[in-house]
Design a protein that fits this description.
Two copies of one chain form a homodimer. Chain A is of the alpha/beta class and 367 residues long. In chain A, 28% of the residues lie in helices and 24% in strands. Chain A contains twelve helices and 19 strands. Chain A has helices spanning 8-11, 37-55, 66-75, 92-95, 118-121, 128-140, 170-173, 184-195, 239-252, 277-281, 322-332, 344-347; strands at residues 3-4, 22-28, 59-64, 81-84, 98-101, 106-112, 145-152, 159-160, 165-169, 199-203, 220-224, 227-232, 263-268, 273-274, 297-298, 306-307, 311-316, 337-342, 358-361. In chain A, strands 1-7-6-5 form a four-stranded mixed sheet, with helices on both faces. Chain A has a four-stranded mixed sheet with strand order 4-3-2-19. Chain A starts with a strand and ends in a 6-residue tail after the last strand. The mean pLDDT of chain A is 97.
Amino acid sequence: MRVINSTPKADGYRMPAEWEQHYGCIMIFPERSDSWQYGAYAARKAFVKVASAIAESEKVTVCASDKQYENARRMLPPNIRVVEMSSNDSWARDYAPTFVTNGNDIRGINWGFNAWGGLVDGLYFPWDKDNRMARKICDLFDKDMYDFSHFILEGGSIHVDGEGTCITTEACLLSEGRNPNLSKTEIENYLREALNVEKIIWLKNGIYNDETNEHVDNICAFVKPAEVVLAWTDDKNDPQYEMSHSCLEILEHETDAKGRKITVHKLKCPSPVTITAEECEGLDTMDFEPTRTPGERLAASYVNFYIANGAIVMPFFGDPADEPARELLQSLFPERKVIPIAARDILIGGGNIHCITQQIPYFAQDR
Amino acid sequence: MRVINSTPKADGYRMPAEWEQHYGCIMIFPERSDSWQYGAYAARKAFVKVASAIAESEKVTVCASDKQYENARRMLPPNIRVVEMSSNDSWARDYAPTFVTNGNDIRGINWGFNAWGGLVDGLYFPWDKDNRMARKICDLFDKDMYDFSHFILEGGSIHVDGEGTCITTEACLLSEGRNPNLSKTEIENYLREALNVEKIIWLKNGIYNDETNEHVDNICAFVKPAEVVLAWTDDKNDPQYEMSHSCLEILEHETDAKGRKITVHKLKCPSPVTITAEECEGLDTMDFEPTRTPGERLAASYVNFYIANGAIVMPFFGDPADEPARELLQSLFPERKVIPIAARDILIGGGNIHCITQQIPYFAQDR
């Protein structure tokens, strides 16, 4: 693995849209007992369902610690590859590399990772093993790496259309805990150079109580060029109401990098999902404190789906809004099979299906 | 990765000779401070030289712990892949899988590993991480695995000609600490099924004071069908004298699987190599005891070389016998470049270049 000292833009590489052809997907086997209930038993089962659904149409590699390697190998089907890799938690979206392509080969971007806010408002300490993963994954796939480790960014905080446009949120990218010494313009420049985009659309915020400082991948996602889904509610008493309306307002007045108006599909959220006392009982403490409080609202959103080569793998919450959400996504991706996964056990960890996956774009095999 | 419940022989797979075309080579970055001097600093440098020499003509993958990953990545050239994998020590020959081929694809054999003798005369405890490696490496390369984990065997205790013949030693394969409940015939049957060989040539012993119970790969190696090199000494006062002569006697009266007489090339050993008090000082203790004693003889042999696609990577000991050994190997492998590596820092760990490498036979890329 070579470390490349230029930028993807300078070398003619760009981050493709998630619906472009994949080589495969990378995931991380869950383990930490302060993130995941009952020693992560339930989460592991849900992760296995997600991995298996994706593996129907692309190659899946799951990273597991040495300690969990045997369990991962036993629980996952044989067509999924399991490799040993240490991590602090299981958010492949946020610390696996962002891959860029020149149409033939791919390279990885190693962003800096500080657990969603470092010592300011990060979610756990330390995060050293997570922060080593992007480099290790580039090496694992024998792909060269752009070193952006001095710039803090999680993969879940950006979405691209593959045609020059990036969507992100101010709540996250301008947060205290990430790059406080960089101006908005400087941050934009990093995104332009790394993702090879010309236009950055800044939403103000994301999903209510989303502890990632409101990652864009929970509120808004491209479904094709100039078309997005937006997490939505019509309930004026829900704090999400103002947040989603603010996003709509911005999107309606924006154009993408190619000057196109953006079509917004409202993807209605489930009724507020809160964690139960029994679920909180199943979580270990962190720094001598409980990690969740009974009744705490979780950042549930159908926008947090994954686009596989042949499928849309989406979360279900056991809510009346499940079916309408499935129907909308199916209509937007008519050539892919929508596979719903009961995702409460993932949501309890603080994210959802998009957060625990990272696509690897197609590349020509050259060995 | 699928676990296959038949045997290579039943499926038409065989272990190829080491000189047949490789996909590449696997090695393990050294770390343990009771095996390797001064926290393994010197050994790491020697391993890097070996890996770099092999990487001139085939793809090398080096496994490193999370703790050593950064050092490995920094010390190894970029054309070598580094992957995280936990181990108890660094003997890829002995616990990486033995790969078998059907001419198109390869599969791995997962032998049982118990640190060269388990609780009888094993060299360290525990050996659980080593014993998981064959499985992990098959998975890493996306290759199916034959599970022979109930049969204890190290890769260094067998050599094959790829044409139906295996050479091994009684001292090792019939030792108390490996498969004490199996008869010699039963052990032969395991080798026949796993390696797909018809003839097993049993040498009585190997190199004097070789703590692996005298692995064959330190005393005798095929260099082409019906031709071997044999570690040799003419010094009648050396305990090696009787051992090497016994091997010669056996080889001269044997034929291979195809009925051919075996040509033996004597590869003279260096003068006895012993560990110094200063070197012993640099080794941590194990179970409250020193791991080596000053003056202890090390199992130095030129037979412990690795055949890469374009090179013979062989140990040098700073001995007058170095050059004649190089010349003999060069004459036996005229189309490969002989690359000598100063190997004392590897030898101190208890083995040599062949012991720290494991070839991966060529396979057709199919993705």
